[in-house]
Amino acid sequence: MATSVRAKPDGSPPPAAPPSSPGPRARRSPGGLRSTLYRWDIKAIPYVFVTPFFLTFAAFGLFPLIYTGWLSLHRVELGGDPSWKGLENYTDLATSEFFWNALANTFTIGVISTVPQLLMALGLAHLLNYKLRGRGFFRVAILAPYATSIAAATLVFAQLFNTDYGMINGLLGWAGIDPVNWESSKWPAQIAISVIVTWRWTGYNALIYLAAMQAVPQDLYEAASLDGASRWRQFLSVTIPSIRPTILFTVVVSTIGATQLFGEPMLFGGSVGISGGSGNQFQTLSLLMYEKGWVTGALGQASAIAWVMLLLLLLVGGVQALVSRHNRKKLGG
Questions:
Q1: At what angle do helices 186-214 and 97-128 cross, to 10 degrees?
Q2: Which of 20, 72, 77, 292 is surrounded by the fewest CB atoms within 10 Å?
C-alpha cells in the first residue's frame, strides 16, 4: 500500500523526501574513473621511469657480465667455435707468470699512485677550505687535469720522461744525476705512469674532500680553537675524523681505478704499450686481458682475467663494507 504524505497542521507543505542514494552505475562516474587512473598512475609511473635504466643495464651490463663468465669456461678463439674447458682457464692463470707479473704491477702502480694522490688531495682541500684570495680560480684550476683527455696527458708526459731528450732527465742532469731509462726499467716506468695518474686525479679528489670539509660544523673548529689547538691539530683531530667516510670512499674508488688502469700504460709504452713494455715491466691486468683477447685471440683466457678482476673489486667492496660497519659500531659505542 502506498504511503500518503500528509500536510502539517499549520498548513505548511510537507518536507521534501531525502534524495535516494546513487546506485552502482552512478558510483562509476567520471570522477571515480579519474580517481582509479590516478591511483594507477601513482603506482605504475615510478616503474615506468626506472624501466629504461634496467633495460639498458640488462643489455649493456648484465648480459656482457654473464656472457663473459660463460666464455671464461670455454676455449674460444677469434672466428672459432667455443669448446668446454671448465675451470682450466683459471688454473692456467694460477700457473702463468705473466698473470702474476701483471697482478703485481697493478698492485705496485696502484699503491704508488693512490697514496701520494690522496695525501696531496687532502692537503689541497685543506688549503682551499680557508679564505684565500682567488679561491674560486684555484678550485677550477685543480680540476683542469681531470678534464684533460688521457691521450693528451699521457703523450705530454711521455715526452717529458723521454730518455734521450726529455725535460725530466735534463733537470736530473743539471743536478748531477745520470739519465734514467724511464721506459725500459721497471720501477722508473711505473713511477712515470703513477705520476700521470696522480696528476690527473689529485684535483678531482681534492674537490671531493673540499665538499666534505665544508660540511663539517664550524662549532667543532671553534671549540678546538678555544682549547688552544693549532690549525694542524684541528686538521688531525677535527677534519680527518669528520671526513673519514669520504676518505674511505676515495680510497675504494681509487683502488677500483688502479685495478682497471689501461690507457696510461698503453699510451706511455708506445708500440710496446699493449705488452707493458719490452719486458712486461708495467703490464697491468687490463693490458694483459686486452693482449690475450685481441692480440693472441684467446677470448676464454681474457674472460677469465676479467672475472678475476671482478672478484678483486668485490673483495675491495667487501673490505669497505666491513670497515664502514666497524666505524659505525665504534661511533655508536
A1: 40
A2: 20
- Whole-prediction pTM: 0.82
- The residue with cell 690549525 is 231
**Segment 232-272, tens digit of pLDDT:** 899 999 999 999 989 999 999 999 999 999 999 999 998 89
